[in-house]
């Protein structure tokens, strides 16, 4: 073993140690929240650590190999090759999850890419396993140690194809990124490719793992650390939002008016009064449960809460309040007390401000890229420009908008015309609020939803 082999071993060893430390740090940071970005970053780091440890066996022990050394080099070579594809697949997941916070990706990225990439991973893994017997990608013999197989180019072609796919996604959304993010992603696109080209041309130089580690370190410093600070700020904002909504939901006038209505109903219709008590109890119970929720809840649960609230208000206002539901989609999630808050706003500031009352209509629908919830009323309406200056009256709407953006990456748009009514429209992107994919991360839409094209 010469000094150059020792240098390669040291380079791979330090790369594995540094990647393992960054990977564990990312996993700890993602603990307790649905943070796919940090988990994918951890996957890249840990896969590269495995790859670097496997690469060490290419330099030590030196041939000829005894039986134990032969098994060690064979295991290390297999680990090296089998870890290559997960590195780039995790990076694909990293950039897709990261960019989804900023803009709407093309539907094909979510619909077509996963099965194709999955098929590529399975095929490549089969080649790695087959190489243990036929040596198609790599060969290990007691006499010569590790050598590249006749079909070594397959491993390189697979990696290059996946790397180019990642490059296309990043370049198509390059304008959505900050300078620090561009540096991090560019380093991961360029450094491994340059190192891999040198390593293919000059066997004996262990540059690939070191280049990936350097790129990951740049991403860790320029993106992950800044993102962790952003998450902390978002957590603080969400905590403040939960405090605001708790205060906004404890409304004495609503409690007093409802209890007064129940008291009067006890004299005229005891059975109906009993039903109102049941509805009021359910309303309060759901309010308290929702205030402690840190993640989106199923739409059906929030819809049930809104129905309970509107039923109580109908008991109070009678024919002055008419309610309609047109629910055509339910398989998604949204922040707690969002639909109920919009319904309450329609009743308090819309319909009941008119002497003759009016109608509140709640609807949900599914679009190709999002779920849409609307709450419309034909009440008094308001002047949008003037509403921006009214911090107290519309604090509930601002609260809902902030939580929908932070928890679901969605938007809330309120349109109103004085004398004609108000329409509030919630849009929940399918990658965020659909069942099985609701995001509880506090990162939300940092970057403001720049709407960059695919």
UniProtKB/TrEMBL annotation:
Q: Does the keyword Membrane apply?
A: yes
Which stretches of sequence are listed as region Disordered? 428-454
Q: What is this protein identified as?
A: Transcriptional regulator
Please verify whether the record's keywords include Flavoprotein: no
Q: Where is the Histidine kinase/HSP90-like ATPase domain?
A: 334-432
Where do Gly residues bias regions lie?
A: 434-454
Q: Which Pfam families match?
A: HATPase_c, His_kinase
Q: Which organism is it from?
A: Rubneribacter badeniensis
Do you know which InterPro entries this protein is assigned to?
Bact_2-comp_sensor_kinase, HATPase_C_sf, HATPase_dom, Sig_transdc_His_kin_internal
Q: Which GO terms describe its cellular component?
A: membrane
SUPFAM superfamilies in the cross-refs? ATPase domain of HSP90 chaperone/DNA topoisomerase II/histidine kinase
Q: Gene3D superfamilies, from UniProt?
A: Histidine kinase-like ATPase, C-terminal domain
């Amino acid at each position: 073993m010469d000094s150059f082999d020792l240098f390669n071993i040291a380079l791979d060893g330090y790369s594995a140690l540094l990647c393992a430390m960054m990977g564990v740090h990312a996993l700890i940071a993602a603990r307790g929240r649905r943070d796919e970005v940090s988990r994918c970053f951890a996957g890249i780091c840990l896969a590269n650590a495995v790859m670097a440890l496997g690469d060490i066996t290419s330099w030590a022990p030196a041939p000829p190999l005894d039986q134990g050394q032969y098994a060690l080099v064979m295991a290390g070579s297999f680990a090296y090759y089998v870890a290559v594809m997960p590195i780039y697949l995790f990076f694909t997941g990293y950039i897709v999850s990261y960019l989804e916070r900023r803009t709407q990706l093309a539907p094909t990225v979510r619909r077509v890419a996963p099965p194709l990439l999955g098929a590529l991973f399975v095929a490549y893994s089969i080649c790695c396993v087959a190489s243990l017997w036929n040596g198609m990608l790599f060969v290990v013999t007691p006499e010569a140690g590790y050598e590249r197989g006749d079909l070594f180019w397959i491993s390189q072609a697979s990696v290059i194809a996946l790397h180019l796919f990642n490059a296309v996604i990043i370049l198509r959304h390059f304008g959505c990124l900050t300078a620090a993010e561009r540096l991090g992603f560019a380093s991961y696109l360029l450094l491994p490719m340059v190192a891999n080209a040198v390593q293919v041309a000059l066997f004996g130089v262990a540059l690939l793992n070191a280049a990936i580690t350097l790129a990951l370190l740049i991403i860790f410093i320029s993106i992950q650390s800044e993102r962790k600070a952003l998450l902390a700020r978002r957590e603080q904002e969400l905590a403040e939002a939960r405090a605001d909504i708790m205060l906004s939901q404890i409304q004495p006038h609503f409690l007093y008016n409802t209890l007064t209505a129940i008291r009067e109903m006890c004299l005229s219709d005891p059975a109906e009064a009993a039903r109102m008590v049941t509805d009021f109890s359910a309303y309060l119970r759901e309010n308290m449960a929702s205030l402690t929720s840190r993640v989106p809840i199923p739409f059906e649960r929030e819809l049930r809460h809104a129905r309970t609230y509107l039923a109580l208000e109908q008991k109070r206002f009678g024919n002055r309040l008419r309610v309609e539901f047109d629910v055509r989609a339910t398989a998604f999630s949204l922040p707690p007390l969002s639909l109920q808050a919009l319904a309450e706003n329609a009743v308090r500031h819309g319909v009941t401000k008119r002497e003759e009352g009016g109608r509140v209509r709640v609807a949900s629908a599914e679009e190709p890229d999002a779920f849409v919830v609307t709450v419309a009323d034909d009440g008094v309406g308001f002047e949008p420009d003037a509403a921006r200056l009214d911090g107290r009256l519309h604090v509930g709407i601002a609260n809902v908008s902030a939580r929908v953006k932070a928890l679901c990456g969605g938007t809330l748009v309120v349109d109103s015309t004085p004398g004609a009514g108000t329409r509030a429209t919630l849009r929940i992107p399918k990658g965020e609020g659909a069942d099985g994919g609701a995001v509880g991360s506090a990162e939300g839409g940092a970057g403001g939803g720049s709407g960059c094209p695919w």
